[in-house]
Fold these 2 entries.
Entry 1:
Amino acid sequence: MKLATFLTLILSAAALQGQTDYSKVEIKTTKMSANFYMLEALGPMGDVGGTMGVLAGPDGILMVDANFVQMGDKLVAAVHKISNAPIRFLLNTHVHGDHTGGNEALAKAGAVIMARDELRFRLAHPAPAANGTPGAPAPAMALPLVTYRGQVTFHMNGEDAEAIPILAAHTDGDTLVRFPNNDIIMTGDFFRSLGYPNIDLANGGSLKGMLEGLGNTIGMAGPKTKIIPGHGEIVDRAGLTAHRDMILAIRDKIAPLVQQGKTVEDVIAAKPTAEFDARVPTAATTSERFIRQVYTELKASK
């Protein structure tokens, strides 16, 4: 499949951002420790795509996520500014194009792409768009070369970085990446501090799996752990716990309405997120989506 067809898939993931001029988007690098860096794509309107991580050192570079396809070359250049060491591994936290789009550019730069079995399958066999348009498979070089089902540990640069599968949460191919010596956890999009959660039902996500994944992450975090979400500001364990508790509270408002036979429009009108809207960034554009996702799962299990 030609790169042009893959662009269609990636651009559909950027729909919420409108028409982005990628020539004006740059990579911001934030040094978080002696050998760990957070990367963000920033344009005139703010963040573009998902957050990325780089573990650098004499053993080479381990990367987490790869932003949009349009940012591939800029991402490779930004990594080389951090270190001249070879880019050895790229971990994808989930299938969405704002986290996997740069895969091909990084593979060409020498990275071995790694991800869950489910993620590779969905890149190769994408779900149709909401309007039924068939998805465009990723180019061969953009597909993970190595896949896994259980935990994988990278012993690099004084770290024991852990890629830990999170089952059926944001999608069915999520991975949490933990850097214990740096006390950093990257969650991908099963935790976002920007907006309400996004349970991608079409790609195998679930409310149950998201809650379990958040609970597991809380359990492995210490009081000073830096938790880097797929989108939004870094939080600590207390912030992550508050996020999980918010989801539980909203679920518990929606569940009895589902039991009463209310329609999804009835539930939206009941405003089950109202008490949280003022403190959730982009609540106005993400609350209805989240309510619909929770309603769909609870109704299916009724």
Entry 2:
Amino acid sequence: MIYTPRTYQAEGINIAVDFLRNCKKDNYNGLQIYPTGSGKSVILANIAAGLDDKLVIFQPSKEILEQNYAKYTSYGYRAGIYSASLGSSDIDQVTFATIGSVVSKPHLFRKFRYGLFDECHLVNPDEGMYRDFISANPQMKLCGFTATPYRLEAGAGGAQLKWITQTTPRIFNKVLYYVQNDVLFDSGNLAPLDYYSFNKIDRTALKMNSSGTDFTEASVRSYLRQINFPRITVEYAYKILRSKKNLLIFSSTIEDAKIVSKGIPGSVIVTGDTRPEIRAKYLNDFKAGRIRCVINVGVLTTGFDYPGLEAVLIARSTMSLALYYQIIGRVMRFFKYADGTIKRGMVVDLGGNIEFFGKIETMKIKQDSAGKFFISNTVNGRERRLTDVPFSEN
């Protein structure tokens, strides 16, 4: 099946292909920024086809790998998969891979000319598997793709979100192309959102960790226990389920999730410890409508693609802009019902996150007078810079 790229997709594809073909390796590696739901699998497939050379495409999980691989092969192209979790070690001219499966075998890719990195904000420029693989394959020209182009760093001036092309060291050092969130919302490519903020958590009662990057688990557990937060979560979950067919809850602790699940008959819990086959069954049943409510802790932020999801309940507080964005990203995907009506995604926040970060639609990628990129948003009537400033200034 051939997918005709949208205008912004075609622009990004052409820019990436031209960059990878013509840019000298020692100049820079590229970065492209696309909102959640913008169709990165289409973009990656067309870039791979346009390069027509040996390249490896990295994904952070087998779920995202399967999505990207399926889109590429749906065009009729052939590709290999190198992923232990999928039981495959097939290398082809175009190979979809997970880094943990190939980091110990970088020599297998020494004839590869290009490397594409989905969710590239996860690439640690200081150390780790990605860094090791890239260092072992200096011949590759690289391009990264993400919706959240920043990383959390602790420094002398305090914790801050640093734009990944401006960290030291860095892997990706030039923004090639980006799409603003409002472009996709205004064009109808993303679902319209309804926000409801109830601020049941007093963020000032929570303690910051030693690096100043987020709240301590101990203070979160203690405070949520004091206010009987699971009861509050269950109360709002029932209100949502009166008008919505399904609900995805984001809890901060497994302890809370278990109590919440007991209060919502038929609900299930998904965590990092959930066995893969159980997780797959739960999510398949959720998408099929056999389960109406899933409570998750620390997962289902990337790689969970369910356009029919109608509501998310943010039953936690966070200082992580990336986490906040990815949570809302689960309900942003466009969906049309059988009767022709368009889904409106519901975002219910109990943790003061909307008031802290603002709405996704109004987040903007901007450049300062020195040409440095940052994320800005209008929050409570004033413009705030959300990245590349210490948290103490937010």
